[in-house]
Amino acid sequence: MVRRKKKAKNFPRVVSFSLTARRDKGQSDYLAMNVIYNARIQQAFVRSILFRSCGKCKGRLVYVSKNRNDQTASFYCEACQQFVQSIKASYKLQFIAFNPQQQRFENYVAYEDALQPILGRTAQELEEFLKQNTNVLDFIERQLLQLNCHLILRVARSNRDTAKGVEAIVPVVDQNEWVPIVQKFIEYKQQTTLKLDKVLQKELSSLSLHLLERLNVESSMEP
């Protein structure tokens, strides 16, 4: 008699994220045992979401200053002992979420694999995007706060880990409704620009009409 392996619990109508690279032996049992369902993000430290390292030695960089002319930042590599131009950006997001199964708030940390699907950009792409869109981090933070999601956890490396590692963040929304957060920001920015253009056009039209009426009145008063 062949015993069938117990299948992992299915996510109820959620966005599916690919974990094919991690479908090794026992992955179904791993998913069944290490998922926190219907967690809610209460705080996300988005300001430090990008971890920058030296593109040459992969060592940690020290932020030095920002150029006033083009707003580019300068970073110094202590290992190479020089200012660097080649910078590698990676994701690392620390956040606090409510675990309904344990009825408590817990600390979590997510990296590239978990963040790229919901943001819609790699860390390197977000680094470049930030140069022209400095307020995107505020938008990301607003989108993450109170987000209802399932958290697929990493296997803990040791009992000393203060924050639980997250393998994937799966928003509890219909698959057809979810839009990556950076894409939402782009659409929001476009809509805001269109609204401003309409307001400006209306004001200019009103001003032109007012000036035209004034000219007509002045011309009628001439002898």
List keywords for this structure.
223 residues; disordered N terminus; five-stranded mixed β-barrel; single chain; three-stranded antiparallel sheet; 2 domains; 5 helices; alpha+beta; flat; OB fold (Dihydrolipoamide Acetyltransferase, E2P)
Structure write-up:
34% of the residues lie in helices and 29% in strands. With 223 residues, the protein is an alpha+beta fold. β4 (73-77) and β5 form a beta hairpin. 18% of the residues are buried. The model is unreliable at 1-26 (pLDDT under 50).
Quick summary:
The chain is an alpha+beta fold and 223 residues long. It has helices at 27-33, 112-119, 123-132, 136-144, 181-221, and strands at residues 35-44, 50-54, 61-66, 73-77, 82-84, 87-99, 104-111, 148-153, 164-171.
- The parts where pLDDT drops under 50 for at least 5 residues are 1-26
Find the CATH topology of the largest domain.
OB fold (Dihydrolipoamide Acetyltransferase, E2P)
What is the CA-atom radius of gyration, in angstroms? 25 Å
Mean pLDDT: 78
SSE order and pairing:
Layout: H1 27-33, E1 35-44, E2 50-54, E3 61-66, E4 73-77, E5 82-84, E6 87-99, E7 104-111, H2 112-119, H3 123-132, H4 136-144, E8 148-153, E9 164-171, H5 181-221
Parallel strand pairs: 7-9
Antiparallel strand pairs: 1-6, 1-8, 2-6, 3-4, 4-5, 6-7, 8-9
